[in-house]
Amino acid sequence: WQTGLTDCCTDCGVCCCGMFCYPCLGCQVAGDMGECCLCGTGMAMRTLYRTRYNIPGSLCSDFCVTLWCPVCSVCQIKRDINRRRKMNIF
């Protein structure tokens, strides 16, 4: 990951969107990834994104992060997408 799980200060807009409208941010991430926006797909999206970009981790870590801190998880993915877009690798 290009930012840590709790690095919300690196992109306050994403953080605020996640805190105040988590479903909206989840749908943005799903749309960015070309996936369907359904409830309960956080772990699947995180795992797909992580494997697509060869980010170290495991299914167990994806499960734990999306279970205990879903907002931080989606914010981290969105920050990563934004950074990869700036580098033209998304």
From TrEMBL:
Q: Name one Pfam family in it.
A: PLAC8
Question: InterPro entries per the record?
Answer: PLAC_motif_containing (IPR006461)
On the tree of life, the source organism's domain of life is Eukaryota
Question: Which family, according to the similarity comment?
Answer: Belongs to the cornifelin family.
Protein's name according to its UniProt entry: PLAC8 protein
